[in-house]
């Protein structure tokens, strides 16, 4: 910790050198300390060690502005909060983000993220880790939250694919050969179309990487 009023008084050369060195140390450490510097200047930086925050004096020199919080990473005030999920057009997570791959990660190393999402997506080993969501190959749907469109869902729950109940039929009013099946159908017989489609129901899409902010 080092703070200085940045005012060098008239003094002997040795004392002046020591005073200048102290001022430079204060500059280098962002005037670090648990309490604010006693002498302040507009746009001055201060590392508040009591709250692990970097602050800057406003232009009027009347108040401190919190720029961000220092932890395992630097969290910019007003920036992207821990727990936010975004898609990225690259195949590895950027700095400050984790792949949404269901991994168990440290509750200590990623304490800010753990505070944000807890064990919603898995409790990890139950004591030292927790799971991030696994969004590989998944579409995201807005949580119903009481609206009634997708009722009965808990936040963070997964849902299997499904088609709304329906069917396709071909009804025959009398005897005759069925041009579709090539069979002789009796009166009142109902036939059905062949199965068609692939392994799942999906819209057109592009594969990107989902990541979660730590």
Name the beta content range.
Answer: 15-25%
Strand order of the largest sheet: 1-2-3-4
Describe the largest sheet. 4 strands, antiparallel
Which bin fits the share of residues in helices? 10-25%
Q: Write down the Rg.
A: 32 Å
Query: Span from first to last CA?
Result: 28 Å
* Poorly predicted segments: none
Give the number of DSSP strands. 13
Q: Indicate the overall shape.
A: rod-shaped
Summarize the helix and strand pattern as letters: HEEEEEEEHEEEEEE
**Overall mean pLDDT:** 85
Number of helices: 2
Which class do the helix and strand fractions yield? alpha+beta
What does this structure look like?
By secondary structure, the protein is α+β, with helices and mostly antiparallel strands. Among the domains are: 18-76, no CATH class; 85-137 and 209-213, heat- and protease-stable fragment of the bacteriophage t4 short fibre, domain 3, CATH 3.90.1340. Helices cover 11% and strands 22% of the residues. It is built from 2 helices and 13 strands, in the order H-E-E-E-E-E-E-E-H-E-E-E-E-E-E. The protein has helices spanning 13-28, 111-117, and strands at residues 45-48, 53-57, 64-70, 74-76, 85-88, 97-99, 104-106, 129-131, 169-171, 176-177, 184-185, 190-192, 209-213. It has a 4-stranded antiparallel sheet, with no helix packed on it. Strand 3 (64-70) and strand 4 form a beta hairpin. The longest helix is centred in the first third of the chain and has 16 residues, at 13-28. The radius of gyration is 32 Å and the shape is rod-shaped. The relative contact order is 0.13. The mean pLDDT is 85.
């Amino acid at each position: 910790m080092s703070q200085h009023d940045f005012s060098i008084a008239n003094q002997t050369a040795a004392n002046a050198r020591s005073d200048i060195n102290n001022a430079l140390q204060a500059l280098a450490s962002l005037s670090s300390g648990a309490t604010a510097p006693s002498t302040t200047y507009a746009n001055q930086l201060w590392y508040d060690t009591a709250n692990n925050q970097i602050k800057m004096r406003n232009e009027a020199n009347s108040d401190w502005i919190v720029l961000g919080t220092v932890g395992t990473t630097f969290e910019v005030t007003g920036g992207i909060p821990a727990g936010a999920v975004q898609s990225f057009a690259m195949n590895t997570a950027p700095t400050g983000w984790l792949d949404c791959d269901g991994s168990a990660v440290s509750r200590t190393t990623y304490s800010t993220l753990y505070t944000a999402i807890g064990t919603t997506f898995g409790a990890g080993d139950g004591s030292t880790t927790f799971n991030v969501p696994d969004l590989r190959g998944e579409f995201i749907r807005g949580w119903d939250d009481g609206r009634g469109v997708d009722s009965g869902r808990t936040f963070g729950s997964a849902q299997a694919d499904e088609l709304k109940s329906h069917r396709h039929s071909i009804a025959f009013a009398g005897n005759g050969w069925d041009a579709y099946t090539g069979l002789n159908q009796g009166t009142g017989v109902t036939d059905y179309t062949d199965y068609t489609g692939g392994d799942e129901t999906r819209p057109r899409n592009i594969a990107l990487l989902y990541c979660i902010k730590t």
